[in-house]
Amino acid sequence: MKYSQLPMVFTLLLLFGCSEWSELKTIQEDGEIFFTADNFANTKVAFDTMTVRKMDCEVDCTYWQALRPVEKDNLPHTYSEANIRYGQQLENITDIVPPKALEAGKYQVSGMLFYKNINGELSGGGRFSGEFELKLVGKKLVLITD
What we know:
1 helix; globular; Lipoprotein
């Protein structure tokens, strides 16, 4: 790690390093899966890491893993609307495991996310995680909600 990156690392640790995990919710719109959180309302969202893993799985359990490579830390984040679409491609983010077609089953999702308010100011972020389940109904995958 370069010494010039230390102030940024310490700032991130102070802001997010000791934070607890916040709930990441899953929603389905027009057949697509999105991830959101209560505090994402009226914000734009970016992520440094995002991982979706199938639970009760023994082989090839990671269905999508994307991250912001260290060498791109000095580049600005690309923010999307308040929801992150499964497999969403953002500038300066690399797919370690490209998104696979989801199938029926239970999944875990986790990531390090940041969000800006409507004025474009960083308003929060941290570690987020959640679980979701998809069920095949007819020929469609449907998100199961409680």
